[in-house]
Every structure is written in structure tokens, then in C-alpha cells.
């Protein structure tokens, strides 16, 4: 049994593990197990560690998650960036509070109703098509569903708990901005994200508009929208759209009509020069609210008058603090020194004029930041821009592949040429080596033949003068023809015609030499026969060494056979003697 060391946290990440050992067990003091960055495909053998409270198996190869079903004390489960196809094994985990299943292949939200303690649920970057039933998750506060394929929000009122505070629906396939109306049932929502959906992206066929006030009009408690804090101006626009605007009168299916209406009420502004009169009036109202005065009319009525073209009189502002002395409230007409002058503005307008330059500068900076962010966001998240970027990358990749293919062809061609050159060099060396061996063999054979010929014609010493003394002098008078010099090539290829010519010359010399020797032996034999017939006087016997040396040794091959008949007269002469 493999028991982990006693520690509160056991980190086995990036170990190249493919599965857990069957005898794997954590100590009783261990509450966190980290298995990130391995190659685990299945969660097995975790039942021996039921006391685990936190488990992380991120960036592995998990296909199923059933192995966590017996970890009843689990509070945090982190399984992102795997290949999990569906949610399972969570029925007996009532203490689970934090669940991360992002970056998997989940298509349906299911089997989560028993996780009554769940507060954070991350199902982003999956293949979810619709929002499932999560009404029994009474503790759920955060739901992340960005990066899926959700097309409608019709199931939100029936499937999401009303106390949800954070909801992310960015990067989905919501094409109708009126779908936002279904979020009105989430009364406690504070943070919402709907960016990178087709319904809020600019298209060539529709005019540009600011969708933020419209979304805020359905969720007035929002504090953060698409990662940006809701401004006071956006809050005022949303309140006006909620109370007197026509934006809430449109229904799902009327996206184009809503966009045209919002383009007139909430247009996009790229610079201070394009600021509308309505925005200027909103700035004026907001600037008045910064001072210690209260409005005699409600902000909604002021907004209504502003959008309808009514100018708000400055006398509508009254003091909120009593004047010292009589303890009664006084209006601006009583406290202002310019009372009775109908054409003059109260002091508050002069102060607003003094701050107008700074407000314009701040507004210009905000517009620049917003335009930069929109451009950056469009380049990264707009589907057309992403498609263009992918095409550009694909084109560059193809060009690079063609370039690398050309370089590879050149390298292969050079390698093939070098290989052929090496083969030719090897063949040349082999041929030269064979030629050298054949030349050495031919030289040895010639030397052997010459040595045999030299031994065959060697002079024989005669101790006594005899009638046959003429033979040795004749033999001795024979001179060995000078040997021809044989030249061998130092390098390169030796032509076969040259070799045959040299060999032919040597053979002809040998044949002439042997024929001359044979003729002289025949002449000596005839002289000896004539001597026997003329003077048959006995002669002393020859020594054995002289007898054998007088006859030349037989040569190899046919040449020895030709020399054999010349040796027959010698024994006959000896016999007669």
C-alpha cells in the first residue's frame, strides 16, 4: 500500500502519471490533492481517501468523472481542460461548494440538483446549447457560461435561481438583443457579461448603437457590465429607458427594430465633436447633482424632459440646508443676489462653466479609451475579424510551408547529388583496387615464370672433357634476354589494351627463348647420335648431378610437355656407354 507523506497538501502535478496506483492512499491529515498537468484518463482508486476536501485534476485526459462519487467530504473540485463529456458522480456530494468544469466537452447541464451547497459553478468553454435547471441550487452565486453555444435565454426565469449575483454569457450565439429581457427575473444580479455575442456586435447592415443602457434597463441593480463599472450617465439612461423609453416595448424577434431605435436614443460617439445634445444635458444634470442642492423634480422626470427637448430651468434647484437666522428654507430667488434678473443664470451655472473644460478633457480621454477598447475587442472577439485573422494566419502558414518545402527540396537534391558522388567514388576506388590486385597477381606470375626459366637454363659445370662437352658451352653461350621493365600506374584507370600489349610482348619473348633452347637441344642430340655411329668408343659414365642438370626442368603447362621429348636421348646414350 502506497501511503502519501503526512501533509495537508499533496502536490503530484506534472509527474507524467497516466493513472493512480491501486494502493494509493492519502493520510488522514491530507485535505488537498493536486494532480494537474498529467496524463490521467480515469479517476480510480480515490475511495481509499474519503477525507479529501479539495481535488484538482486540471489539464489531463479525463473522459469521465465518476471516480469522485465516494469523496463525500469534497468541497472544491477542479477539473478544467479535460475531455469530460457529461456531468456525473456528484449525487453524493452535498458539501461541494466550488466546481470548475471549464474547457471540456459537456453539452447538457444536468445531475447538479443534489449539490445544494454549491456557490460557484464554472461551465465555460464547453458545447452547452441551452441553460439547464439549476433552481435547486439555493446557494449558487456565480454561474459562468461564456464560450458556449447558447442561442436563447428563454429558460432563464424557470431554470436559474433568482438570488444569482454573477452571470457570464459572453462569447455565445445570442443573436437577438431582446433576449436580455429574460434576465429581469434575476433581481440580485450585480455582474453580467454579454460581450462577444452577435446581438451586441456591429454589423454593416445595422447602425451603431450603445447597448449598455438597454441591458441596464432590464437589470437596474447591475454594478459591472462586461467588465466595466456602470457609470452614472449609463444609469440615468437606463432609468429613462425603463420608465419612459420605448426600448422595453420590443419583444424577442424584433432585433432590427430595437437596434434602429437605440441608434437614435443611445448612439455611439467616437469623439467629443459627435456628442449629442442629450448627452450634454445629462452631463449638466449629473454635474448639478454633485453640489449640495436637491432637485424639485425627480431624476426620471428630468431625464424625460431632457430626452423630449425641454430645458430644465435653473430655478428648479433649491437649497437643501436652512439659512442661519430665521430657520426657514429659502429658494434660489431668495438667496441669490441676482433675483429679478430673468436673463441671468444662478451662480451654479458659472461654476459649471468653470469645470466645463476639465469635463471635456475627461470625456475626450474616456472616449479615446473606449474607442481603443472597442477596437481591441473587435479584433479579438468579432467573428468576422477573427475569421479574417484566421485566414491571414492560414495564408502566412501556407506561404511558409511552400517556402520550407522549396528549401527541403533543395536540401534533398543536394543530398542526392552528394550520395551519387560518394557512390561513384566508392565504385572508382573498388575498380582501382581490383586493378591493383590483378596487376600484383600478374607481376607475381611473371616473376615465377622468369625464375623457372632462369633455373632451367642455368650452366652446368663439366669435370672432364668429353665429346658431349659441346652442349654445355652451347647452353652457356645462351644469354637470357633482358627482362622488360614493367610500369604500373600510380593513379587513375589503367586501360586493358595496355595490359594486354605488355603481356603479349612478354609471352612472345618467352616463346622465342624456349624455341631457341629446343632447337639447340635437338642439334646437340643429332651431334651425339652422329658421334655414336662414327666412333663407338666407350666413354666414362657421367656423374649423376651432371646427368640431371643437363636436362632442363619441365615447365608448367604445355611448355613443359613440349620440352619432354628432348630429354629422351640422354638415357639412351648412357645405356650404350
Automatic annotation (TrEMBL):
PROSITE patterns: IQ, LRR. Residues 562-577 have a biased composition (Low complexity). It is found in: Cytoplasm, Cytoskeleton, Microtubule organizing center, Centrosome. The keyword Cytoplasm applies. Keywords: Cilium biogenesis/degradation, Cytoplasm, Cytoskeleton, Leucine-rich repeat, Repeat. It comes from the Eukaryota. The keyword Lipoprotein does not apply. Residues 319-350, 481-501, 518-577 are annotated as: Disordered. GO terms for cellular component: centrosome. GO terms for biological process: cell projection organization; negative regulation of cilium assembly. Acts as a key negative regulator of ciliogenesis in collaboration with CCP110 by capping the mother centriole thereby preventing cilia formation. Required for recruitment of CCP110 to the centrosome. This is Centrosomal protein of 97 kDa. It comes from Takifugu rubripes (Japanese pufferfish).
Amino acid at each position: 500500500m502506497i501511503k502519501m507523506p503526512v501533509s495537508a497538501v499533496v502536490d503530484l502535478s506534472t509527474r507524467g502519471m497516466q493513472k493512480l496506483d491501486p494502493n494509493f492512499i492519502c493520510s488522514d491529515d491530507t485535505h488537498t490533492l493536486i494532480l494537474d498537468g498529467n496524463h490521467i484518463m480515469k479517476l480510480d482508486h480515490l475511495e481509499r481517501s474519503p477525507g479529501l476536501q479539495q481535488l484538482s485534476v486540471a489539464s489531463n485526459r479525463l473522459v469521465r468523472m465518476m471516480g469522485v462519487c465516494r469523496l463525500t467530504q469534497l468541497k472544491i473540485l477542479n477539473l478544467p481542460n479535460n475531455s469530460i463529456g457529461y456531468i456525473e458522480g456528484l449525487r453524493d456530494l452535498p458539501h461541494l461548494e466550488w466546481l470548475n468544469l471549464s474547457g471540456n466537452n459537456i453539452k447538457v447541464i444536468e445531475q447538479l440538483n443534489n449539490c445544494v451547497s454549491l456557490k460557484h459553478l464554472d461551465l465555460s468553454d464547453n458545447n452547452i446549447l441551452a441553460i439547464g435547471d439549476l433552481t435547486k441550487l439555493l446557494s449558487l452565486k456565480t454561474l459562468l457560461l461564456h464560450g458556449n453555444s447558447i442561442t436563447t435565454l428563454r429558460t432563464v426565469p424557470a431554470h436559474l435561481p433568482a438570488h444569482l449575483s454573477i452571470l457570464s454569457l459572453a462569447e455565445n450565439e445570442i443573436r437577438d438583443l431582446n433576449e436580455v429581457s429574460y434576465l429581469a427575473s434575476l433581481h440580485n444580479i450585480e455582474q453580467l457579461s454579454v460581450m462577444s455575442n452577435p446581438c451586441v456586435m456591429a454589423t454593416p447592415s445595422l447602425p451603431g448603437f450603445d447597448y449598455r443602457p438597454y441591458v441596464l434597463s432590464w437589470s437596474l441593480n447591475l454594478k459591472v457590465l462586461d467588465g466595466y463599472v456602470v457609470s452614472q450617465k449609463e444609469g440615468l439612461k437606463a432609468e429613462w429607458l425603463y420608465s419612459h423609453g420605448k426600448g422595453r416595448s420590443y419583444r424577442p424577434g424584433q432585433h432590427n427594430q430595437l437596434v434602429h431605435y437605440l441608434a437614435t436614443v443611445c448612439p455611439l460617439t467616437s469623439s467629443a465633436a459627435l456628442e449629442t445634445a442629450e448627452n450634454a444635458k445629462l452631463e449638466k444634470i449629473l454635474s448639478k447633482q454633485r453640489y449640495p442642492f436637491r432637485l424639485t423634480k425627480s431624476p426620471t422626470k428630468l431625464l424625460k424632459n431632457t430626452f423630449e427637448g425641454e430645458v430644465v430651468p435653473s430655478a428648479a434647484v433649491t437649497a437643501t440646508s436652512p439659512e442661519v437666522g430665521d430657520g426657514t428654507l429659502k429658494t434660489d430667488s431668495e438667496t441669490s443676489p441676482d433675483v429679478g434678473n430673468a436673463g441671468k443664470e444662478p451662480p451654479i451655472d458659472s461654476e459649471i462653466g468653470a469645470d466645463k473644460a476639465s469635463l471635456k478633457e475627461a470625456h475626450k480621454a474616456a472616449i479615446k479609451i473606449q474607442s481603443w477598447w472597442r477596437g481591441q475587442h473587435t479584433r479579438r472577439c468579432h467573428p468576422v475579424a477573427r475569421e479574417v485573422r484566421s485566414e491571414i494566419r492560414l495564408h502566412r502558414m501556407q506561404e511558409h510551408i511552400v517556402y520550407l518545402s522549396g528549401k527541403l527540396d533543395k536540401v534533398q537534391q543536394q543530398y542526392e547529388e552528394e550520395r551519387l558522388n560518394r557512390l561513384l567514388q566508392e565504385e572508382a576506388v573498388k575498380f582501382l583496387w581490383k586493378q591493383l590486385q590483378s596487376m600484383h597477381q600478374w607481376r607475381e606470375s611473371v616473376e615465377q615464370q622468369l625464375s623457372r626459366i632462369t633455373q632451367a637454363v642455368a650452366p652446368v659445370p663439366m669435370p672432364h672433357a668429353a665429346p658431349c662437352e659441346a652442349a654445355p658451352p652451347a647452353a652457356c653461350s645462351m644469354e637470357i634476354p633482358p627482362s622488360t621493365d614493367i610500369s604500373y600506374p600510380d593513379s587513375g584507370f589503367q586501360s586493358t589494351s595496355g595490359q594486354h600489349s605488355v603481356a603479349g610482348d612478354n609471352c612472345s619473348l618467352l616463346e622465342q627463348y624456349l624455341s631457341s633452347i629446343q632447337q639447340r637441344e635437338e642439334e646437340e642430340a643429332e651431334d651425339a647420335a652422329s658421334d655414336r655411329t662414327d666412333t663407338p668408343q666407350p666413354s666414362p659414365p657421367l656423374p649423376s648431378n651432371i646427368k640431371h642438370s643437363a636436362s632442363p626442368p619441365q615447365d608448367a603447362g604445355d611448355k613443359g610437355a613440349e620440352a619432354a621429348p628432348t630429354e629422351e636421348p640422354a638415357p639412351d646414350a648412357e645405356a650404350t656407354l
